[in-house]
Structure formats: C-alpha cells, structure tokens
Amino acid sequence: QVRMVESGGGLVQAGGSLRLSCTASATIFSMNVMGWYRQAPGKVRELVASITADGSTNYGDSVKGRFTISRGNDKNTVYLQMNSLTPEDTGVYYCKAVRAVTYWGQGTQVTVSS
C-alpha cells in the first residue's frame, strides 16, 4: 500500500519561506508524476506545481518565479521550495503522485500571516 508522507507546513510571515517535502513510501517503482496542489477555504483545489520523472515542471500562474519544485534522487520524493510567501498562499497543501493510479497525501497546512 503506497502511502504519501508530507512534512514542512507551518506558520510564516508574509515574505518568508517554507519548504515542503513528500515521499511516496512502500513502493519500489518510480512515480511518473509528482506534484503539489493547494486548497484555500471556500475555494477549489488548484495546481501549485508538478514534475515528471524526466524533470519537466509545470507551475500555477500565481506561484511562477516564487516556488520551485524538485525531486529527490530516489524519484519518489518531491520538494516544494516556497519563497516570497503572501497571505494568498495560505491553504492546505496536498501532495499527489501518479503511477497507473493516483495517490494523495493527507495535506499539510500552510498559513501566511500579513
């Protein structure tokens, strides 16, 4: 049973930085795509960033130039470096991985205070 283990959320002031990490455990197979989504209160879940096994990345428009997604050497760990955070970045951040099926993490709260 693949389990997504997330860490790194928390409370930060506007302009600060946070780094999220997520590992797909209990599998020897590399995930094809890994990424981060977020959901703010009253809003739909949206793509933050994704990365494929060969390193191709995709970012949501609101985070381009501020966030960077990367994968670990094991290919089943993904990181999200978030810089220049604003209160609009507040939400629950979910890790997602895809290999034949889609796996979601339980979510980690990111709160940016003004």
Short description:
This protein has 114 residues and is mostly beta strands. The chain is built from no helices and 11 strands. The strands form 2 sheets. Strands 2, 4, 5, 6, 9, 10 and 11 form a 7-stranded mixed β-sheet that branches.
Can you tell me about this structure?
- There is one protein chain.
- The protein is mainly beta.
- 0% of the residues lie in helices and 56% in strands.
- The chain is built from no helices and eleven strands.
- Strands 2, 4, 5, 6, 9, 10 and 11 form a seven-stranded mixed sheet that branches.
- Strand 7 and strand 8 (77-82) form a beta hairpin.
- The protein is globular.
Give the biggest sheet. Answer: 7 strands, mixed
Helical content class: under 10%
Mean pLDDT, nearest integer? Answer: 94
From the spread of the alpha carbons, the general shape counts as globular
Instruction: Provide the structure class.
Output: mainly beta
* Unreliable stretches: none
**What percent strand?**
over 45%
Distance between the termini: 40 Å
Radius of gyration from the alpha-carbon trace, in angstroms: 13 Å
Number of helices: 0
- The total count of strands amounts to 11
Could you spell the SSE succession in H and E letters?
EEEEEEEEEEE
Q: Strands, helices and their partners?
A:
Blueprint: E1 3-7, E2 10-13, E3 18-25, E4 33-39, E5 46-52, E6 57-59, E7 67-71, E8 77-82, E9 91-99, E10 101-104, E11 108-113
Parallel strand pairs: 2-11
Antiparallel strand pairs: 1-3, 3-8, 4-5, 4-9, 5-6, 7-8, 9-10, 9-11
